[in-house]
Write a structure and sequence with these properties.
Blueprint lengths: L13 H8 L3 H4 L8 H12 L11 H9 L7 H12 L7 H15 L9 H13 L6 H4 L2 H16 L3 H100 L9 H14 L7 E8 L2 H8 L1 H18 L5 E6 L2 E7 L3 H17 L13 E7 L7 H17 L5 E3 H12 L1
Parallel strand pairs: 4-5
Antiparallel strand pairs: 1-3, 1-4, 2-3
Helix pairs in contact: 3-10, 4-5, 6-7, 6-9, 7-9, 9-10, 12-13, 13-14
């Protein structure tokens, strides 16, 4: 009995092992059992091209032990006897059996009888089990007994506040469970195909024979109807082409009207309404990681003088050129739009305050260094840029745009042709308040 004492706590494994280790038979057999004969044959052809997968056998004593742990009231003596027989067996355990034993030990450490165990201990055990995954096929790893590893790891990574790892383990669990269900479905379809293959072949042969007889009878009838059908077909095609042409013409007009309502007529950029639509969607989508969304708002310095000295047609050309220069610096996922007048706004997803400031500096330098002499301008064109980044998920797009606007006006007060971040303004205000 002293030899068996180290294994007695395993009896209490049932409190955690059963809820997730075994999936119901109804879940395993879930799927579309009403697939057509053609679908079954297509899937059968795909299955024939799949290479053979090695599935490790699982010790019957280990499976019996797991089944004994399933009831609420566990027969401790029987569990202890089976555990001792499994542990003292002369035949070595394969990779899959070692994997399951490590998972079982991890579940044991979660029970009330293992108060001294920590999440780090459990994670270490499960990492040892995960190291055996390379020796086990993906098909076997997707079975319910093996999937428990990912759920337990996700649970204890969350306790250790390693949420990214917890998310990855949860994701791995779902992906492998999907593979498990899909394999079950394919096995069921293959079994049905094998059971009804002969019957289907007979039915197919009978159907083909019947169809051939019908085709022979129809040959004469088709010959007589061909001339009339040809005329009707030509008439239908002509009418259909007419309607298709009218439909595409109407669709073109509609798309043009939509573009006009969502784009600026001068610069062809997104207009104010499209900007606010994109902005509100981005703010909502970045609520879980607000510091990764930034806004750049800039205004052309002394633009009124350009209009007064050279005319509005030159001012329009300057706006178009500035928009082209800025578009060259934008990333594919950025949204660049004209807010109105000489004000432009850029939405920068996946850009924190530092990245947004770097982009703003690049825009400022590119515009300041550009030669506008071909537009009859003898002076440089500069911009004042304000940068604002979401600080919390409570901010709305109006708040974010307002912060960028305040930063832009601060840039103008600092002498124009500069970049100011709203974060710096807020920090300075807090210092003055303190």
């Amino acid at each position: 009995m002293k030899l068996l004492q180290p294994f007695l706590p395993t009896v209490f494994l049932s409190t955690l092992l059963l809820p997730g280790l075994f999936l119901t038979e109804s879940q395993a057999q879930e799927g579309d059992t009403t697939a057509s004969t053609t679908e079954v044959k297509d899937i059968s052809n795909k299955l024939s091209n799949i290479p053979q997968i090695i599935i490790f056998p699982i010790n019957k004593d280990l499976l019996a032990l797991l089944k004994q742990l399933k009831p609420v009231d566990v027969d401790k003596q029987a569990v202890t006897t089976n555990l001792a027989r499994l542990t003292l067996a002369k035949q070595p355990l394969n990779a899959a059996e070692q994997y399951l034993l490590l998972v079982a030990q991890a579940l044991l450490k979660e029970t009330d009888l293992a108060q001294q165990s920590t999440s780090e201990d459990i994670v270490d055990l499960l990492k040892q089990a995960a190291a055996l995954s390379d020796k086990i096929s993906e098909q076997q790893l997707s079975q319910p007994n093996f999937l428990q590893l990912h759920l337990i790891l996700a649970k204890h990574y969350a306790k250790l506040q390693q949420f990214e790892l917890a998310y990855q383990e949860k994701k791995s669990y779902l992906n492998k469970y999907y593979v498990y269900r899909n394999n079950k479905r394919l096995d069921m379809i293959a079994s049905l195909e094998q059971s009804y293959e002969l019957k289907n072949k007979k039915q197919s042969n009978s159907l083909l024979e019947s169809q051939n007889q019908q085709k022979e009878r129809r040959v004469v009838e088709v010959q007589k109807e061909r001339d009339e059908q040809q005329y009707n077909f030509t008439l239908i095609i002509a009418v259909a082409i007419t309607f298709v042409l009218l439909f595409f013409r109407q669709l073109r007009v509609r798309n043009k009207l939509i573009r006009l309502t969502r784009s600026d007529s001068l610069t062809k950029l997104a207009n104010r309404s499209a900007l606010f639509e994109h902005g509100e969607k981005m703010v909502a989508s970045f609520a879980h990681q607000p510091t990764e969304l930034s806004v750049i708002l800039f205004d052309l310095d002394h633009f009124k003088k350009i209009n007064d000295n050279f005319g509005h047609h030159v001012g329009d050309k300057v706006l178009v050129k500035v928009s082209e220069l800025v578009k060259e610096t934008m990333r594919s996922r950025d949204v660049f739009s004209r807010l109105g007048g000489e004000e432009f706004v850029a939405l920068l997803p996946f850009a924190d305050n530092n990245k947004a400031k770097a982009i703003a500096m690049h825009i400022k330098e590119k515009i300041a260094n550009h030669d506008f002499s071909n537009l009859m301008l003898q002076c440089k064109v500069t911009v004042s840029i304000g940068v604002a980044t979401m600080e919390s998920d409570q901010m709305s797009f109006d708040d974010l745009l307002h912060g960028a606007d305040l930063a832009m006006y601060q840039a103008k007060e600092q002498g124009r042709n500069t970049v100011v971040c709203y974060k710096n303004i807020a920090t300075a205000q807090e210092r003055r308040a303190n």
